[in-house]
Amino acid sequence: MARLPRLNLPHIPQHVVQRGNNRQATFFDTKDYAVYLDKLKHYAKEYGVKIHAYVLMTNHVHLLLTQTTANGTSKLMQSLGRYYVRYFNTTYQRTGTLWEGRYKSTLVDTERYFLLVSRYIELNPIRAGIVSDPAKYIWSSYHHNALGKRICLLTEHDVYLALGLSSHKRQANYRALFAREIPAAMLTEIHTATNKMWVLGSKQFKQQIETLSGRRSTPIPRGGDRRSESYKKQKDDH
């Protein structure tokens, strides 16, 4: 089956995930993380992509970003991926691929899901059992968004800015969000939407994306009578 074109629209946030091939480690040393972030900043600026949140894990990366051009995210991830593979292979005297195929991504409903996805990203080290507090993991945007440590590659989204009139108020309100656990159903929803590259948002948001992109934003439900009129209509609508 031919794969659907990636949902990739300007000015709409995206949750991007890129994993190491066969779950292999993609970062070994402090310098590796620093090189990746430096080039992320470089290519984000070059291709007009705003980075709002990130976490670099041992074998994968999460980004919350917004492209300002039609293909900014794709260009960013391609250029960053190629540069980092060359760096990694040279540094560790290896050859071959590093990343697991195409990166995964989902468009994010700004009003309902932006801050949720930001928390999801920055809580990765907690879920992985690496630290007990996101502040103890240094390779994350939590230090900027919650603690006020300036990370120059980040651009604060309007949703984040609406948390308070001052930076201290925004940081305090952002930290307060972490007092509540993300429900398991929400974790599954984010994980599934990203890995399947569907849209993460309300029904209305998904309909808007379908109108803008010209392709369906959710999978066609399985099962039922495939000869029924209701099934045929649903299929035709997509």
UniProtKB/TrEMBL annotation:
Segment forming the signal sequence: none
Biased composition, class Basic and acidic residues, residue ranges: 223-238
Pfam families per the UniProt record, alphabetical: Y1_Tnp
Region (Disordered): 211-238
Positions of the Transposase IS200-like domain: 9-124
SUPFAM superfamilies listed in its UniProt record: Transposase IS200-like
PANTHER family attached to this UniProt entry: TRANSPOSASE IS200-LIKE DOMAIN-CONTAINING PROTEIN (PTHR34322:SF2), TRANSPOSASE, Y1_TNP DOMAIN-CONTAINING (PTHR34322)
Record-given protein name: Transposase
Organism in which the protein naturally occurs: Pseudoalteromonas obscura
